[in-house]
Amino acid sequence: LPFILAAMSAIHLLFLHQTGSNNPLGLNSDSDKIPFHIFYSMKDIIGFIILLSALILFCLLCPNILIDPDNFLPADPMVTPSHIKP
């Protein structure tokens, strides 16, 4: 069954590549096409830069927001934390 699914997927991609995905009549319409490399590559790079910048700002401006509050308590070797039972 996996080989049949792989073969059907390959055939589907072959026919899809030949006729185009948004072309039910089979007509050659080059005027409606958008170049992939320039448009989508730049769109993905800009999105990646925006998300990476947001992550860096979050990590630099709010470094302690995701830390457990117990980490801010001063250490006392003579007192066991309440959640640890002997």
TrEMBL record:
GO cellular component term of the entry, any: mitochondrial inner membrane
Entries under Pfam families matching the protein: Cytochrom_B_N_2 (PF13631)
Membrane topology per record: Multi-pass membrane protein
GO process terms (BP): electron transport chain
Subcellular location: Mitochondrion inner membrane
Transmembrane regions: 45-67
Major site of localization recorded for this protein: mitochondrion
Any GO MF annotation of the entry: metal ion binding
Annotated InterPro entries: Cyt_b/b6_C, Cyt_b/b6_C_sf, Cyt_b/b6_N, Cytb/b6-like_sf
Cytochrome b/b6 C-terminal region profile domain mapped to chain residues: 26-86
Keywords noted in UniProt: Electron transport, Heme, Iron, Membrane, Metal-binding, Mitochondrion, Mitochondrion inner membrane, Respiratory chain, Transmembrane, Transmembrane helix, Transport
Listed name of the protein: Cytochrome b
Annotated organism of origin: Sclerolinum contortum
